[in-house]
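Hi support team,

I submitted a single chain yesterday and got back a structure, but I'm not sure I'm reading the token output correctly. Could someone confirm the output below corresponds to the sequence I sent? I've pasted both exactly as they appear in my results page.

Thanks,
R.
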Amino acid sequence: MLVAMALDRIVGQPPHRLHPVVGIGRYLQWAGRRLPSLPRTRAFAGGMLAWLLGAVPLVAAAWALQAGAYRAFDADASAVGRVGAAGIFGLGAVLGIALHPMLAWRMLHDEVAAVQLALAAGLEPARERVGRLASRGTGALDATQGRETAIETPAENLNDSVVAPLFWFAVAGLPGAVLYRYANTADAMWGYRGRWEWAGKWAARADDVLSWLPARLTALALLPYPRRWPALVRQARRTPSPNGGWPMGAMALALGVRLGKPGVYLLNADARAATAADV
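Hi R., thanks for writing in. Yes, this is the structure output for that exact sequence:
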């Protein structure tokens, strides 16, 4: 985990053409091109089948890579304590390099910082930057709403891009982290109401299940004060997502600011507006 996090901070994302998540996105784009036009039942079944057809070989490849690494360093996954120091560090390096593309904290940090710089230059540059961060209309976004988005996005993605991949790596090794990143990418591309309502339902629910516990752990990490947890529960319930409201609500309470998406939700409604210092 430390190797993966250090690589994310120092190196950033792998080259676009070699990035496994980019490859996942290309598969999902290809596999989902006709799904929304199908009748409900066929759209749901097709979405589930396409999701599984992408997930199974990815998880199998991750398992094979991990098993190969254990064999290469003569390690037994159930008894790593018997492996020498060289084996431990070698195994950690290989698995850390493989885990690295599942994390995206530095990229998110840089994009959020760019929103604040763009706000200093004017609303139009800021709207363009915000559009790269969040799937919402930006044409009528004012400066405060731009700052709110710049705060909400790293809060929610702290779970999606850091905590949840590390959580599933701890639970199920490299296959767990890869499966989570695949599910989260599928939800980001297919998990919408309207046209994708049925074709993307399996993808959306799979991400909900895999993100459920990590999202709450992320919120507790952001707001580690038991006396404030009842308020956090109330804020988390105000978003349509069963998970996204937890880290965003925790961030709103931790900073003491109001966060929201126009016409969808408002968190910590009685608090002050977000400022540049909060971003």
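A quick pointer for reading it: The chain has a mean pLDDT of 91. Let us know if anything else looks off.

Best,
Support desk
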